TrEMBL record:
Keywords: HDL, Lipid transport, Secreted, Signal, Transport. One of its GO terms (cellular component) is spherical high-density lipoprotein particle. This is Apolipoprotein A-II. Its main location: secreted.
Length: 103
């Protein structure tokens, strides 16, 4: 029985060892100028591609905020007027109901 278990463990270890992917590490053979050129290339790509997208997102956010403020200024008086008229209507309905009950 022990031999069977030992054989199974050995088989599992061998199969796992074969499945492990060994990665080669990069040797730091690049010179300082290569590192700087790669850095500046990355920065230039960021400034030319990703930064304008972020600026556009901020611009859209600003325009949306301005639109919502304008809409709020326009609809607030209308909403107040509708609220007042609705409350008057409810008051009239309650008074009519009270008069009907009293009669």
């Amino acid at each position: 029985m022990k031999v069977l278990v030992l054989a199974m463990v050995l088989l599992c270890v061998c199969s796992l060892e074969g499945a492990v992917v060994k990665r080669d590490t990069e040797t730091p053979s690049s010179s300082l100028s290569d590192v700087f050129s790669q850095y500046f290339q990355t920065v230039s790509e960021y400034l030319s591609k990703q930064l304008p997208e972020k600026v556009k997102a901020e611009e859209i956010k600003t325009k949306t905020k301005a639109y919502l403020e304008q809409a709020n200024e326009q609809f607030l008086p209308i909403a107040k007027q509708l609220h007042t008229q609705f409350m008057d209507f409810l008051t009239q309905m309650v008074e009519t109901g009270k008069k009907a009950v009293q009669q």
